Amino acid sequence: MRTMHIAKKLKDWTQVVATVVLVSALAACGGGGDSGSSSSSGSTGSTGGSTGGSAGGSSSSGLPPSPTQQPIAATAANTVAITVAHGVTGVINIPTISVTVCVPGTATCQTINNIQVDTGSFGLRIVNSALNSTMQAGLPISTSTSGGQLAECATFADGYTWGSVRTATVTIGGETTTAAVPLQIIGDKPASTTPSAGCGSGSAENTANDLGANGIIGIGTALYDCGSTCANASTAATYSNYFSCPGGTSCTRTAVPLASQVANPVAKFPVDNNGVIVQMPPIGDNGAASATGTLVFGIGTQSNNALGSAQTFTTDGAGDLTNSVFNGNTVTAFLDSGSNGYFFNDSSLTLCGSNFSGFYCPSGAQTRSITLVGQNSVQAVANIGIQSASTLFGNGTNYAFNDLAGQIGGLAAFDLGLPFFYGRHVYHGFDLRPTGGTQAPFVAYAS
Which residue ranges are recorded for the region named Disordered (predicted)? Predict the structure, then answer.
């Protein structure tokens, strides 16, 4: 799930609707990253197709060997366990963690489970209904420079989310932000306050059922979800995803300084704040009922988060590899844990019927290769496996899949979603330059 750049189009799909038909493609408007979601419960579909290999090792005919790297134990202060399972509504391939938020300056706190881990967006967003009444009332609402309540609209391909910007102290694993950070509370404002212009079209996506999770934690390469686009009054007037709401209503677009924008909370930790590592276990080619991995904070800051032999690709500010090559064409590639499949365009792959519209259903297992190219000119070929979505969904008890793929529409993009993360350690180094640092954004992986 990714918060889309201004002047860019939709970049990814997320969250399979496993019982119903469709993956919902979404992209939040705003300044950096791309985002999305959809929902359903329990997977159904026809059975059959190729048999899968064991987790890590030899694979089915037509599939590349599975990566074999294991996650470290989530026991250190700079770690937290990642779970892929049934979750809130039974959406497949949704990696989630637990996050604790506190009213600033108090001991009034709540731990919220099933927050989706999204390396393709930036900032913490929590569904209002996941908060208890004390937290709903206690988290202070931010104000715009003109004094109105500050709200944000994330616009998606099939709808939008709408809610206030508030502040909270955030704890994840054993790490706590040094101060309160801005976050979005989704669905806490009445539908009647939704801006009539500038907030997209379609239906509201303001519940846990809509998202398939109780919220989203965006931990991609950017520090803020909109950046200079929303901070600059001249561009914010047209493109800002932030709104000033005097008296809570009559919301109009507004410029928002960086310090008030929804922010990547990991970058606000006192230590281990320069990046993250998503570590997921290897799984079999036919999927698994669940998977448990580890989210590690910091890169090269502790003995458990060294970059090691991982190949490093510098990116643009949103973590995109804009000069990658697929089928002889230049594409923008991104490593996005918030997408529940691989999504790309390949006319040689058979699309599923209406039961799984938008997904690929080849008659046999397939392998495709993409050449990832960093801005530092580092290149590497990534091989991915693809099995029929209808075959994979034939087992209604599996929620983790490493070879699910679908179409991304008419875009020259290649979304390496959560299937790419299984059996790998995937690094996202933050762009520290906006805060005076020297680290440029990068992604890396080892398997």
Answer: 31-71
